[in-house]
Amino acid sequence: MVPCLDEAENIGPVYEEIVAELAGYDDLEILFVDDGSTDATLEHIRSLAARDDRVSYLSFTRNFGVEPAFSAGYRYARNDWILHLDADLQFPPAEGRRLIETARTGYDAVFGIRVDRKDRWSRRVSSAVHDLIARKLLGIELPPGSTTFRLVRASLARRIVDLRLGTPYFLATVPRLTSAWTTVPTAHRPRLRGEPKVSWRGLARHSVELFVSYSDRTIAAAVTACLLAALAAFGGFAAALAGVSAGPLLYLAAGIALVALAVMGRYLVHIGRGQPRPPQFLVREANVPVAAADLLEPGRGPSRPARLAAAS
User: Fold this and answer.
1) Domain over 2-196+279-294 is classified CATH 3.90.550.10
2) pTM recorded for the entire structure
3) N or C: which end of the chain has fewer CB within 10 A?
4) 246-255, long-range: CB within 8 Å, 24+ apart, which pairs?
């Protein structure tokens, strides 16, 4: 399963490398999920699908983001196991064999861990800080060092997608549903074609959603901060009555209270996202059966409806 956004240069290479390395596995399906690309990505995918029956695809009505893209792939993949592979080919498809062999020993999910990571130093540092905050400070159970390169039992992946979480975070949800997961060291290489699609703003937003949605420690700290600010304010008031200047103390208390209120406000956003909301994604075009609720035009079926009847 390959989610892609404006990866026209990589569609051919990723297809060729998957076929070269993984064609030996029975009933191989290569499912591309086009996340609202504006270049020739969809045209290249259509061309592959026209000449190779193993190629399936879903194309969104717009760019919905990383989690919706692979969630759609998890929902509509036809086989019992799903190997999630990014289109940038930084994880070689051949490394998928290591994940497959490990899964055969009894796991529901196997996550690839980058050895000798080939990203910029700033990305490596930010990932380490993110992991430290999430796992050590906030107590969130995450596969350490894991990324989107993973092999997941399809039944588990679909169960997570169907939870319809307001702030979905797949890596943090897997450990909540099964203890049968593990990590495997895998090779990593630099991106050769195209540009990274994940921005610093997007990464920061995704991290904040994880910290707020999967840990109670943040709001507990905010409540404690409010209580300390209240005590400081009362102390300042008492000092003022006694004729002692308490200006700095009151300023400190106000600052602490405002920070705490900001954290609590972020939790209210999280709660609001649990209310009715638009679909996680909407499919404009596909060559696989798609549920009516996920289609822009429910009456327009796929070109090969019989092929994935069981999966829908």
Assistant:
1) yes
2) 0.76
3) C
4) 253/229, 254/229
